[in-house]
Amino acid sequence: IYNPKSEMGLLRYLVVRVAEPSDRVMVVFVTTEEGYNEMHHLAKFIQQAVPEVAVVAQNINNSSGNVIFGHKDRAITKAQTLRAYVGNKSFNLSPHSFFQVNSGAARIIYEKVRELAALKGTERVIDVYCGIGGISLFLADRAREVVGIEFVEAAVADATENAALNRAGNCRFEAGDAVHLIDEIGEEGGAELIVLNPPRKGCDEKVLHSVAAIKPPRIIYVSCSPETLARDLDILSRLGYRTLEVHPVDMFPQTIHVEDVVLLERREA
Asked: How far apart are CA 190 and CA 77, in angstroms?
């Protein structure tokens, strides 16, 4: 077992993901070095003991600090991705894809975003911090075009694959700096709706300024941190947006964690 103080040891994390409704399982060993032969034998043992395990993978993370995943994945089983379903959408999950642990609550969030979006089929939507494309794909059926923006290139690759899987030809995904990409899309004609789904630290203030600069009539903000949500809503208020609705979702019952889906609209000048 890896000791973060001495930086010695092989196994840093064991990540287990269960895909609903199939209950198929992915097991990811996060290690400091490859050790492929040992992982290969261990994968065989796990699959014999637990038939539901469909994917076993290794992620190599030899960095310091407490980041879970490194940049290199190694497939140990023939199957390399796990198929998960949220509502009527399918998602292929790679070993370090970010995906909501509570898929039932994820469906509630995605459906609430779609309801608040109230799309008519003529709108362009920008999905900032799109991850593997969950919200984008839930909106694609009702939008003219959905453009997903994400800094992590591997997530964009997953999102592109998931769009093809769901035959969402009006979705495209771009990897890179959010401010730069939002500015580019603004020059292409802007968007009628922008969705913000940042990590716990919230949005970079420059991102909020870029969003406000292209003047979308509506913004939907999906937050996993009430503290950073309050901060960012205050910034958006000063940039000309007012909060209309806030919908909390109990993502992890019996804990303090809550997700909020917020609808904002642009105030008239």
From this structure: 44
Establish whether 224 is a catalytic residue: yes
Cβ atoms of residues 206 and 253 within 8 Å: no
Q: What is the pLDDT of residues 166-206, one digit of tens each?
A: 999 999 999 999 999 999 988 988 899 999 999 999 999 99
Cβ atoms within 10 A of the Cβ of 208, count? 26
pLDDT in tens, 223-264: 999 999 999 999 999 999 999 999 999 988 888 889 999 999
Which member of 130, 171, 203, 224 is catalytic?
224
Measured distance CA(185)–CA(5) in Å, rounded? 45
Task: Give the pLDDT confidence score for residue 238 in this predicted structure.
Answer: 97
Please return the burial class of 79, using the count of CB atoms within 10 Å of its CB with bins 0-12, 13-18 and 19+: middle
Q: CATH second-level architecture of 103-266?
A: 3-Layer(aba) Sandwich (3.40)
For the question of whether the overall pTM of this predicted structure is more than 0.90, the answer is no
Could you give the strand order of the β-sheet that contains 11-19, starting from the edge strand earlier in sequence? 11-19, 24-31, 53-60, 72-75
- 243 pairs with which residues across the strands? 264
CA 196 to chain centre: 11
Percent above pLDDT 90 for the chain:
65
> Residue 72 in contact with residue 59, Cβ under 8 Å?
yes
Q: Which residues have CB under 8 Å from 137's CB, separation 6+?
A: 89, 162, 163, 166, 168, 171
Tokens of 231: 């901060």
Label residue 111 by pLDDT band (50, 70, 90). very high
Where in the chain are all domains bearing CATH 3.40.50.150? Answer: 103-266
| CA 218 vs CA 70, 102, 117, 122, 268: distances in Å | 37, 27, 8, 14, 12
